[in-house]
Each structure stands twice: as structure tokens, then as C-alpha cells.
Design a protein that fits this description.
The complex is a heterodimer of chains A (320) and B (260).
Chain A: E1 3-6, E2 11-14, H1 15-32, H2 37-46, H3 51-75, H4 81-108, H5 111-142, H6 148-152, H7 164-170, E3 175-178, E4 183-186, H8 188-204, H9 209-220, H10 224-250, H11 255-278, H12 281-304, E5 311-313
Antiparallel strand pairs in A: 1-2, 3-4
Helix pairs in contact in A: 1-2, 1-3, 1-10, 1-11, 2-3, 3-10, 3-11, 4-8, 4-10, 5-12, 8-9, 9-10
Chain B: H1 2-25, E1 31-34, E2 38-41, E3 48-55, E4 61-68, E5 74-82, E6 85-95, E7 101-105, H2 109-112, H3 115-120, H4 125-131, E8 133-138, H5 145-159, E9 163-166, E10 177-184, E11 191-201, E12 204-217, H6 219-230, H7 232-259
Parallel strand pairs in B: 2-12, 7-9
Antiparallel strand pairs in B: 1-3, 3-10, 4-7, 4-11, 5-6, 6-8, 11-12
Classes of the chains: A mainly alpha (320), B alpha+beta (260).
């Protein structure tokens, strides 16, 4: 057993355990375009990493995993830079408003309940909707009924149907061509999505990839792999910013922990990216929805069952 | 004359009280040796066993205690049920409890030392529980806070390897010699820790000794902690650069691999 001492966390951990956790989360990141913080931070806390260090170091490794995944997707032509930057601008604005909302909610009290209820609700809705849609898409595909526009896009892509919201945004000003995604819509549309998801992500204390990817697919109408690649691109920038802020103000980034995690996650991310070539869009969405639903059920279970210890360490919020 | 007598009596009384007080805390020194007095926390540090060797009066029962010197309050949350859901309902500070507490003894504490000594020397969980001060910092304090807090606190500490009561684990030879490895968890911060040994006969303290062990970060481990604390901006930029380099570098390696 190779133990390594994590100086900022102040604990000694089996290096292979950290590498394995990083690999798992990197795989999910490359495959689904999510940062994986909603899984990794609780897992790190479970193996004894202090909550504040777990959240901050998680952000640091996400920079590596998402950069590796984003580069892989960029080479496959799956990153819409223009869309990513507009969503990022919306996400930063939404995040700033969300942080202020968190302050107000904390002053009102019972913030924990709000955060967990939002988690269960959002994960339940997103996971269920994606699962149902993907299953019906899979059935259609099995029946060889493929929409012509899907054929025009990448082989792994599957587009969501045009919604009333999409049509509404087509009528708004600041219309722009998003060539990589094959879309023409108002810039206000992806900005608004970024704003909403950024707000929710700040409330929930995560980066929001697991909300952003479904939002890009189902609301904006981007092809699945394009949404994944574009989301990873914007995650690189947001997680780099979070890492820097955490290091400057909280001193909770453990670079040794992050290095071990990112060694595993960058390798895992490349495997995940390659899996997107093997799996079809609807299959990827089914897998992501299954993971989202499992996390939601676990959270709901934790909320409803008597905990083994009524006392816990005061946890820090953060991660992606 | 009466005044002089009263003064003499007062002096005698003060000396008697001082002698009694001194008798309560001092007793013959117990020969005590540690195989290390300073522990370096480098990159491969994974906790450390400290070998404690000592010589107690023949026929004694012995207790060895590894305990932290600095014991800051620990911020904890208490979960409660609101409607159908379990959630954190209050925050509590646990004060007056040691950060590290590992106790090894040659017999059950209640049998080797008198109840008064067990309390005076802070031996065993019941004594620690009586010392606990629970401060409710968020939410409404209730009468059972201390009880619930202590049980949960012990569970957390034992799971982290920071607390433990190991009765009957220590063996004392007929000549009073004993040797015991005590475990310093990897979760302890830099600082000073005490190894205390107590020898009891017929429930009374007959000898005691205390030694200090210090832990400190060294080498890369020390530099990283110092840089993270003193130069957060540089440390943050370094962390982001390393992460970007690793992510993009491994991405490039994969591209080359895929090209062949």
C-alpha cells in the first residue's frame, strides 16, 4: 500500500485510492461533460479529507480533467466556442446573483433544507425527463425512424425537438449564427440558460454541469456531444477561477491531492471521450440520467433515514 | 499572645494545605522512555507508532495516555428531523475535550484506580464527558445537547483513529517493567503531544511520568503548507498551471497514441 501524506489536508491516504477516484470522475467528465464534483466531493469526505479541502482540491483537479476532456472534444469538433463563451458570461452573472441569494437564504435560516430540497427536485426532474426522452429516442432508433437533421449532425448526436421556448428566442433581438452547433438563435437564449444554471449552481454549491448539459440539449437544442464538449470548455474557465479564489482566500487547495486526482481523472477523461464515439447520443443520455437519478435517490434516502451519527463535522460548500 | 498564636496556627494551616495539595499532584517519578521525541511529517508520513518503555514499582498496574497539548474547540453540527426529513438543525462547539486521546492500560480503569484518581487524571470517557462544555452557536440549545454531542463526538474521533480506550492491552512484568506502542494518528496537526504513564497499587497512584513528543512538517510538505498560507495567489496560479499542463499534456499524449 503506497500512502502519501497530503500536507494541506493533513491526512495520509492510499495513493491508488485517490488515483482510482480521479479516474472514475474523469471518465464521467469525458463521457458526459460534467465536472463530477457532485460525486467527488462527497466521496473525498467519505475517505477522510476535510470538507473544505475536498471541495477546493476537487475544483483544482476539475481544471485538469475538463481541460483534457475539452481538448479531446475540440479535436473531434465538439466544442462550440462562441456558444460556450456566451453561456459562460451568463453563468458568471447567474453565479454572482446566486451567491447573493445564498447570503439572504442563510440569514433567513434553514438553508440546508432549501439546498437539499432543490437538489432532490432538480436532479429528479432533470434525470426523469432525460431518461424518458432517451428511452423513447432509443426505441425510435431501434425502429429505424431517424430524423433527417440527426443524420446531418455527428453520428453520436441527437437533437431535441424544437420547443415553444426555442421559437420564442428565435423572435428576440441579437440573433446570431452558432455554426458549430448548427443553430441560429438570439444570444439572449444561451445567456439566459447560463444565467439560470449559474444561479442554480451557486444555490446548490456545484459547477452545474449535470444541469447545464441537459439544458443545452433539451432547451437550446444542441447535439449531445456538442453540448458535452462546449460545457467542458466553459468548466475549464470556471473551475480555474474557483481554484484561484479558494487558494487566495481560504488556503484550502491541496495540490498533492489535486495532482493525484488529476493523474487519474485526465486518463479517465480520455477514455470517457473515446466512449462518446462508441455510444450514441441517446445511450449517453440514458447513462447520465441513470447516474443523476441514483444520486437523487441517495440524497432522498439520506434525508429520510435516521443517520448513524447525529453529530457531524461542519461541512463547507463548494465543488463542481 | 493570642494574636501570635493565631498567626502561628494560620501559617501551620497554610503549610498543611500546601503540602496536601502538592501530595495530590506529585508522586515518585516513573522511569519512562520514548523511542522518539520528534516526528517529521514528510510526504510519506502515515502516522507513527511511538514505543513507550517504563519501569513502575513492582506489582503495579499501569496506564499510558497519549494526549494532545493544544485542544481548540471543534465545530460540529447536530442533525434533527424536520417534518419527514433529517437535516442539520444546529451548530455546536465542543470545548474542553482533547484533540487526541489514546489510553492503554493493564486492566479495567475502574479496577486499577480509585474513582477519585480516575477523575483527577482524566482517565476514560466518562471523565471526559464530565469535562465537556457544549456551546450552541446556531439554533436552539436543548437539555440533551451535551449527551448527544459527546456520543457523536466519540464516534467521529474513534473513526478517525484519534480516540481509543485500550484496556487490558498493556502488559506489566513482575519487576514492573512495561513496553507499549502507542499510535499517533496521521490526522494530528503539527504540535506537542504528551505521553503520560501512571502506576497504581491498591487503587492509589504510586508513580507517574510525562514525556513530550513534537510533530512538524518537513521538506516539500512544509514548503507547500507555508506557500499555501503565506502566498495564496502564487500557490493558486501554480495549482491552475499544473492542472492545465497535466490535462493538456495527457490529452496530447493520447492524440499521439491515437495517431499511431
Amino acid at each position: 500500500m503506497l500512502s502519501v501524506f497530503l500536507p494541506v489536508a493533513g491526512v495520509s491516504i492510499n495513493a491508488f485510492l485517490i488515483l482510482g477516484l480521479g479516474g472514475l470522475v474523469g471518465f464521467l467528465s469525458g463521457l458526459f461533460g460534467v465536472g463530477g464534483g457532485f460525486l467527488l466531493t462527497p466521496l473525498l469526505m467519505m475517505i477522510g479529507i476535510p470538507p473544505a479541502v475536498a471541495a477546493a482540491s476537487d475544483s483544482n483537479q476539475i481544471v485538469a480533467a475538463s481541460a483534457s476532456g475539452a481538448l479531446g472534444h475540440y479535436r473531434l469538433g465538439n466544442v462550440d466556442m462562441k456558444m460556450g463563451l456566451v453561456i459562460l458570461a451568463g453563468g458568471l452573472a447567474g453565479g454572482t446573483i446566486g451567491v447573493q441569494a445564498v447570503k439572504v437564504l442563510r440569514q433567513m435560516g434553514n438553508f440546508d433544507f432549501v439546498i437539499k430540497a432543490v437538489y432532490v427536485l432538480v436532479l429528479g426532474l432533470v434525470g426523469s425527463a432525460m431518461f424518458i426522452e432517451s428511452m423513447s429516442a432509443l426505441r425510435r432508433a431501434k425502429g429505424n425512424v431517424v430524423a433527417p437533421k440527426d443524420i446531418a449532425r455527428t453520428s453520436a448526436a441527437a437533437a431535441a425537438p424544437t420547443t415553444g421556448l426555442t421559437r420564442f428566442f428565435h423572435s428576440l433581438p441579437l440573433q446570431s449564427e452558432f455554426a458549430a452547433s448548427g443553430l441560429r438563435t438570439s444570444m439572449l437564449f444561451p445567456f439566459g440558460i447560463g444565467l439560470t444554471v449559474g444561479f442554480l449552481a451557486a444555490i446548490m454549491g456545484v459547477g452545474g454541469g449535470f444541469i447545464m448539459v441537459p439544458a443545452m440539449i433539451y432547451i437550446i437544442g444542441m447535439p449531445t456531444v456538442m453540448a458535452i464538449g462546449t460545457d467542458l470548455f466553459q468548466i475549464v474557465l470556471t473551475s480555474a477561477n474557483v481554484t484561484l479564489q479558494q487558494a487566495m482566500y481560504n488556503h484550502t487547495v491541496d495540490i498533492v491531492l489535486a495532482l493525484l486526482l488529476l493523474c487519474g481523472s485526465t486518463l479517465g477523461a480520455q477514455v470517457g471521450v473515446r466512449m462518446t464515439k462508441v455510444l450514441r447520443g441517446e445511450q449517453i443520455r440514458i447513462l447520465l440520467s441513470a447516474i443523476v437519478l441514483v444520486v437523487m435517490i441517495k440524497l432522498l434516502f439520506d434525508l429520510l433515514t435516521t443517520p448513524s451519527n447525529l453529530i457531524g463535522l461542519v461541512a463547507a460548500k463548494g465543488g463542481h | 499572645m493570642k494574636a501570635r498564636l493565631a498567626a502561628i496556627l494560620a501559617v501551620v494551616l497554610v503549610l498543611a494545605v500546601a503540602a496536601a495539595a502538592s501530595a495530590a499532584v506529585t508522586c515518585p517519578a516513573l522511569n519512562l522512555d520514548l523511542d522518539k521525541k520528534s516526528i517529521d511529517m514528510g510526504m510519506t508520513y502515515a502516522g507513527e507508532d511511538i514505543k513507550v518503555a517504563g519501569e513502575a514499582p513492582a506489582g503495579s498496574q499501569v496506564a499510558v495516555l497519549l494526549i494532545s497539548k493544544d485542544n481548540p474547540p471543534l465545530q460540529l453540527s447536530r442533525k434533527g428531523k424536520v417534518a419527514l426529513f433529517w437535516m442539520s438543525v444546529k451548530q455546536l462547539d465542543a470545548c474542553n475535550l482533547p484533540f487526541l486521546y489514546q489510553l492503554y492500560s493493564s486492566g479495567p480503569l475502574t479496577q486499577i484506580a480509585s474513582p477519585a484518581l480516575v477523575k483527577e487524571l482524566s482517565l476514560g470517557y466518562p471523565t471526559l464527558e464530565s469535562q465537556l462544555v457544549a456551546k450552541c452557536t446556531k439554533g436552539e440549545a436543548t437539555a440533551d445537547d451535551s449527551d448527544v454531542l459527546f456520543k457523536g463526538f466519540i464516534q467521529l474521533k474513534e473513526e478517525a483513529g484519534l480516540y481509543g480506550i485500550h484496556e487490558n492491552k498493556l502488559t506489566v512484568g513482575p519487576d514492573g517493567r512495561f513496553e507499549q506502542a502507542v499510535t499517533l494518528s496521521d490526522r494530528v496537526p503539527e504540535g506537542t503531544y504528551f505521553v503520560k504513564a501512571f502506576a497504581f497499587k491498591d487503587g492509589q497512584l504510586v508513580a507517574s511520568g510525562t514525556r513530550e513528543v513534537t510533530t512538524q512538517k518537513v521538506g516539500l510538505s512544509k514548503w507547500l503548507v507555508k506557500t499555501a498560507k503565506d502566498n495564496g495567489t502564487f500557490y493558486g496560479l501554480m495549482a491552475v498551471t499544473v492542472a492545465l499542463g497535466a490535462g493538456l499534456g495527457i490529452g496530447a499524449i493520447f492524440r499521439k497514441g491515437a495517431a499511431h
